[in-house]
Amino acid sequence: PAGLVECGQFTFLGQGWSVGLANEAALKMREAALAWTEAYPAMEYRHGPISISTRSTATWMLGDAPSGLSDEVHATGARWVAGGL
Questions:
Q1: Cα–Cα distance between 54 and 77 in angstroms, integer?
Q2: Are 7 and 59 in contact (CB under 8 A)?
Q3: What count of other Cβ atoms lies within 10 Å of the Cβ of residue 58?
Q4: What domains, with CATH codes, occur in the chain?
Q5: pTM for the complete prediction?
Q6: 47-56: per-residue pLDDT in tens?
């Protein structure tokens, strides 16, 4: 997706079985790109780590997002990437 190259922080989210994918995506990006990456279950992210999201954050949801989460991420100024599985 456009604009990712400008991001300095990448957060990968999942629900259920896709939490493992989010963890693996964060690890691979950290190793390959030497980037600041994190991974969380989507609901855990909503109730804490979302507070440090900024315009330089890309938040990548693997699978279906909880209702309203994309709006909450957009409100922080972060980029939202919906990754369908």
A1: 5
A2: no
A3: 23
A4: 10-83 (3.40.50.10490)
A5: 0.93
A6: 999 999 999 9
